[in-house]
Each structure stands twice: as structure tokens, then as C-alpha cells.
Hints:
By secondary structure, this protein is α+β, with helices and mostly antiparallel strands.
Amino acid sequence: MTRKTTDIITSINSENKKQAEENRKKLISIVETVILCGRQQIALRGKNETGKINLTEPPYNDVNFRTIWRFRARSGDIFLKKHILSQTSDSRSMFTSPTIQNEIIDLCGNFIQEKVVNRIKNAGFFTILADETQNISRYEQLALCIRYVDDSSADGVFIREDFLRVCACKRCDSFSIGHHHHAMYNYFWIRYGDVSRPKNMMALL
Length: 205
């Protein structure tokens, strides 16, 4: 009896491990699609972003994310193709919802921010750049960028200007903008570095 129980547990564990590996490969394709859209500045969503995804082209113009998904599946991505073909009317784990897309975008953004902050820390000196604008809802936003010297490349030394984040800005006077500068500095330094500030790190506001 013990032997049979052990075999059943081993079989269940093996099947769970196999399913987890397949899900990871499916997620890789989904994440790569989101990254492609972001790198090429392609909008992910649009009017038709719900419903079942088929391998055949729909009669209407599908959104970019679903269209690229379909193209990948038809071009040899066997895991994504299997994922699409496994859909049912009750499928709840297709990872195509706007919520999942936003979560992937946030994770990619955190990864990029960490790399940028690490380069800034190595540079030692940097300048904070800010530009205020209104979004489509007429809310004031403050785009914050960093200019610094990057000598980490084998091709030479470069002056870089990297975007870090957009802040909601209720007021755009000098006090409010200065407050956002310092808040951004503290946020990124505490999140990606030591709480204590090194002596050679200097921000030029």
C-alpha cells in the first residue's frame, strides 16, 4: 500500500512539474509580445480586446497584442499555439487580460528602472531633468529624466538621458517640482540602493 501511495504522489508531482514548465514557456511568449509592443511603441489594446483568440484572422481588425500573438502561434511558437488551441468557453487562465498586461508592463518597468539606477550609482554625478505636460484628461504630469555619464560600455563613454517615471503634479510651481525631485531621489535610492547615501553621489538640481 505504501509503495502504491508513493507512486501516485510521484506521478502527481511529475505532472505538476511538467505543467509548470509548459506554463513558464507560454508566459515567456506572452511577456516577449508585451516587450515587443513596448520597444516599438505599439499600442497593446484597442476596441476589440476580449473573447476567444483563434489562429484564423477575424473579420474585424483585431488589437495589436492579439494580432501579434496569433502571428507568433502561426509562425512556429508551438507552446503559444497549444495555449491558444486549449481555450474553452470557460478558460480563465489565458493571461491576455488588460490586468495581466499591466502587471507585465510594471514588472518590466521595475527591471529597467533598476538597471538605470545602478548605472547612475556607478556614475556618481547626475542631473535631474523635468518637463511638465497635460495628459488627455487634462491632468498635469511631470516627466522626470536623468542625465549622466555612462562608462560601462566597452565602446567608450557616453552621455545618457534616461527616463525614470511620470509623477502626477497638482501644482507646477518651483516648490512642488522641487518636492517631486527630492521624492524621486529618495524613492529610487532607498528602493535600489542602500538607505545611507554614499559620499560621492551628488544630484545637480
